[in-house]
Amino acid sequence: MAWLRTLSCLVAAGSSLLVTSCPFDGADATPRASGAAAPAASATVHTLPPSKVLEEPSPPASKEPDLELVALRPDEQAAVGNELEAAELGDAPASAEAMEPEASAEAPADDGEDLRPVAAHPYHPDFGVDPERALTAVRKETYVFSEPNWRSKKLGYLRAGAVVKRSAEPALKAKDCRAGWYQVEPQGYVCVGNTASTDIQDSVSVAARQMPDRSEGLPYAYGISRYPTPPFYTKLPSEKEQLRVENNLAQLKANGARSWDAEVFDQIPEFLLGNKQAPTLTGRTRGPGTVYSGRALPKSGFAFLRLFESDGRRFGLTTDMEIVPLDRLKLVRPSEFHGVNITGVGLPVAFNRARVAALFAGDPKTGLKQERLIGYREALKLSGKAVQLGGGRYLETRDGLWVKDDSLTVISPMRKVPGWAKPGRTWIEVSILKQTLVAYVGTEAVYATLVSTGADGLGDPKETHSTVQGQFLIHTKHVSVTMSGDEAGDEFDLRDVPYVQYFKEGYAFHAAYWHDSFGKPRSHGCINLSPEDARWLFQWSDPPVPPKWHGAMSLRDGTLVHIHP
Length: 565
Hints:
Helix content: under 10%
Structural class: mainly beta
Radius of gyration: 25 Å
Distance between the termini: 35 Å
Number of strands: 35
Oligomer: single chain
């Protein structure tokens, strides 16, 4: 099947490929469909009986989760690794066919004319596309193909609400795409029908129009569930309906959603007024009596398209079109740590690993005087000069100050230029022992930072939580992706993990918004970055993800990854 199935640990069934399952501690995870309620929570659609009060879930275990991506379908990536030599890499293979997984040979069922309703009132955002030449995505994943047929390779996908420029007329009409295949910018073809529309006033597109902000470390506003966990409302519930679903509503209202005070709240979306159901991303419609569709897991996180207030209570609309009360969530405040841009400066660079350390001014031979304290994990650009002084070794910074090296992680210039470091070629070096990452263009180091690799260090990645070593190519990138697992007692559901970049059998670079331990081993094998570092790396590396797309892939043109002890 298609490349987009291989996002993280296990693939989701059918065409809904962007939800994955990852165990916390070796759990056996299973996938679920995009937009579905969290595993192990009620997944059926509920209408409320006159007076029934729903039970709150049992208290969660106290164990702190350590989310990671673990497994990926090897048959769709093995060709990449097989083409890379462990010692020295040249150019990628000239033939792409051997490296490309097969696209789905079958079109989605009944992908013909689209009869979904349009928005009650026109919505005219400034998305820079003539409405007469626009195509919009109306599903969580709307795939872009290299040719106007379902058997061609997938180049990437759009997320619901995205609007792109299209050709004036369809390039091809066929029985399995009656409304026609349209060419879209910057490349590829999309079938208009169940997953895409030429009508930018489509109700799903209007509801989901808030696109991820790729200029930020977190592309959405995020919240992590508190206990008791929040219900997933399918419409704006009345207070009476809330009381039937949530039995501690008075206490919640008294405490409020204080962690969200600094966030910007919009007016209630028009498509939710008048007791209307939120649109779905599956094409299915809900009955007017539906109130909620399930309850979140204790270990769950959500990304929000919109935040608003109704009758004194704050709610968020998730990327899966669920309405969640924010007083049952804690606002995610990402790590402030990030690496350093060293373009034109290069290595060496050092990161301070001590809670208390200082820079000194003066001459080591005649005396040093403390200049200022150094922040924890602060980056220092070094001149390369070192002096031994009184049993200690001091390194000079590029601005002429000195720092003792016993609290530093130093990244030195490479001693031997690898064969793949050719002019203009982007590549990434990761050291497991140092917990560092350096981005290169040819032989020039342009960015350096601290990371969190596998918790088990240099162990066997097949048997332990260790990061794989060797040379690979980044081949699949996603602005965000959902990860979930349903092992009894260790269920979790984290939506829209940001800036995911796959390079080998379930191993990826990605942002971690649930911890701030960068510089220490922590993961199940993936390479965790701070949100800002993950954003920088995602924007810099190949293959590029076009501005209005949510994901892209290329099996031979990606940035090279070199991971070593």
